[in-house]
């Protein structure tokens, strides 16, 4: 079977669903191909910083999450070796008033998915090959021919890879594979049926080669993570939640009792392990982030270590920026969804990549340096660099959490302005 689509998005995670919603807001229909049989909700939770809330405001869904979750006002960084505590204040964005807020990953995905039209997400759809047919040599515009494992062939004017760290689309573009950080990361949700009693604050614990944190989601659940320079040699441990929990308890035996208690209250079904991976910044600078009408977003473009908590936030930024640029590729259509002009779509994608490339490079670099400063070394110099220079002076600059990705033009205003322009011409 062969079908035609305006836009195909590979991957139904945060980046894929947010991109589909951004395109919908500007009047472009998209088909999301998700290889899983349902929404992928692994990852337990994530903290969304002010830049993510600006993106969610642009997508029109921020209020649906802020009605459930509360902002975090401050946090503490505790040096496990000497007990020294650093207080960190979190300020809200001037435009939205929202500071960082921890949310369930499932809630974010379901909120985005509910805004999409029925049939937008095609589950159990595995991409097997990509081919590009040139439309305009001058600006390298092309039509993407996508083959699925069930025999379906899709002709798409635009193809966007939101298929994660091991992106098939990124590989087709020629981007080099992400590299391992040499660390392990374990995360999960702790559940207290009678209430946990913790303040709505972030607690982070730093030790040589180890780092951990927890933050309340609701009055009964907390999100926690642990990272270390230790990596598993036995794959059975990485796949067994009970062994993962036991391993964290052992690695964190010198941590404050509060963190150990949180880990003991974990819902084992939420425990996951991964080795954080990142793309070398120079690969993003000099590599092909787009070819014609094909590009990538989210982890497919800029995988990074989790040390700034910007993986999901930057994916939401990508979606809005891509939507803004793609709106310029539409023909006027007052009766509904616009029709993409393939040649203009190629120009729009080039504009998106130009805007996002250096932002992504900065986040990848900042995330890696943040992890290095916070987790490596216990000597005087590293303590001074971490406790005085980084936390007091550099953290706000490195985090850059008030970045504004812009707003989306709505479909009706686009149709009206395009129609007016057509009359003038």
Automatic annotation (TrEMBL):
Source organism, top-level taxon: Eukaryota
Domain FAD-binding: 6-330
GO molecular function: FAD binding; monooxygenase activity
Gene3D superfamilies according to UniProt: FAD/NAD(P)-binding domain (3.50.50.60)
Pfam family, one: FAD_binding_3
Keywords for this protein: Monooxygenase, Oxidoreductase
InterPro entries, A to Z: FAD-bd (IPR002938), FAD/NAD-bd_sf (IPR036188), MOase (IPR044560)
Family: Belongs to the 3-hydroxybenzoate 6-hydroxylase family.
Record protein name field: FAD-binding domain-containing protein
Organism of this sequence: Protea cynaroides
Native organism taxonomy: Eukaryota, Viridiplantae, Streptophyta, Embryophyta, Tracheophyta
